[in-house]
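ok so i was messing around last nite and threw this chain in just to see what happens. nothing serious, just curious
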Amino acid sequence: MVDPEERFENGQDLQQLVDKLLEESKARGCLVEKAYELGPGRTVDVSTEVGSQLASELQRLGMDPFRASRDHQRSCPRRLSEEWGSAFEMFELVLLCADQLHVDFHTRCAPAPGEATWKFDAFSQLQARACAIGREIHDNLDLGYVQVAAARWRTLHELAVEARLLQMNDEAVAERYLSHETIAECKAVKAYEKNCTSLGLKPLPPDVVRKLDAEYKALRERFGKDFTGDYGWAADTVEGRPTFVDLEKAVGLAHLRYWYDFMCKVTHGGARGLSLASLESRARASSAALALVETGLPFVAHGSLVSLFQISTAVASLRPNVLPMSVLVQAMARLLDDAAVAFASINDEWFKEGQTGRNRAEAP
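result:
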């Protein structure tokens, strides 16, 4: 057996280990190149044998021997914040204010005894989740994972639309919004019950299913048939059976449809998603951080902050007279402007370097 330190002395990649194990398999009399002539069964036998050996070798060696080559594959040995510190610092400062606003909202805006709590509960959860997603976006952008960040921006944008719609309506809509969790849960349970046996899982206890079904029917009876749709909680705020596009229009964010489509493309399957993934892979393989600009990094960063700000302003609107929260919102607005300038400068630097001939899209 070759000593692992010799085998991986220069940070050899996983393929070299696979090749080595195949050579050793051939030396023992398993002629892998002739395996296909012996039929599918023989191919499976050989790949299973070598696959088991590979798994054992990987467990024995750990990640250390592969890190040099894997770092090269990742092509992001440094954090982008080290190169574009001003822009990423603005991003973090906006996050800092959003986090503090959530703390202030929770401690200063609690409803008085007897006062409705639906909006407070909804806004508190929205702001908490928005802050967490904002941090995920920052960290992924810092490492050059633009598509992952864009997928999380999609969620942030959806939360921004929901927060604005709650802001524009009364406690009754907030109650419907939170109660709609039961509708989603019931649909998930029905899908689980339909497929659990195929998944090798056990069915839920019948009394649990019956209880949830009764809650579902009670909500449908109370709020109407349209309430059971995906956005049924907003049925009274727009005409007909609402879609997310309807919600975007209702809150004045329909102009972000182009970027939402981009977020969906990098989230789902499809040829366009493959093309965007290939673009990012090539950019990450480049030694120049600016290559990532073509993947939309500045726009994803700034757009995410816009969505976070929209959520924060909606949350703060519940108690507009709480001065510390107003100060935080104003600070976020200023920082957001500075962040827009900082990320735009990265885009401008990219164009000056002549990295591509593509036309620049407008920032969110």
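not much to say yet. The chain has three domains: 4-74, 83-169+237-353, 174-236.
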